[in-house]
Amino acid sequence: MRDDAEAEDVLQEAYLLALHNIEKFRGESTLLTWLTRIVVNHAIAQSRKIARHAEIFSIGSEPDWETRSARGAMRLDSTEQPEQATERKEMRRLIEKKIDDLPESLRTVFMLRAVEEMSVEDTADCLGILEVTVRTRYFRAKGLLRESLSREIDFALEDAFSFDGARCDRIVAGVLARLDSASEGGA
Fold first, then answer.
1. Domain 101-172, second-level architecture
2. Which pairs count as long-range contacts for 69-72, CB under 8 Å and 24+ apart, including other chains?
């Protein structure tokens, strides 16, 4: 859903839908597969519905999910340094963005396999596709993520040791000043 609050709403609505239709569960698959299929189908339908409407962004305020995730990260490891927490948050944000950028068919399979840890068989049942298609889409999703993250890391490496003119000038000035003071003292 690309938004934690929206995902929570969809999950709740889907579970209520499943509860109201529990008599339709025929036991042809596991309950997990049946529930996941309802959630996935409801999420896809909701995504299509949202795509037809204009997005509204709040200016000047941080989304609640970011605040909650930052607080959660701080609670998990209170000994973690602020720089490490920030780096972890940025890395998580980057990975989430790259997953969100995947085509929907690949993203759905990736989320079910990697995040929900569903088997190939259960994922295929949930999505109504062949197991070989699940494997192919999962492989492609991982490849696209790897490639996309690799490009980001390459760009970061280029900046990591880039020339910093102001810093260099400051160091040179310091060295020259020390040379001047040493030559004055020795003369």
1. Orthogonal Bundle (1.10)
2. 69/4
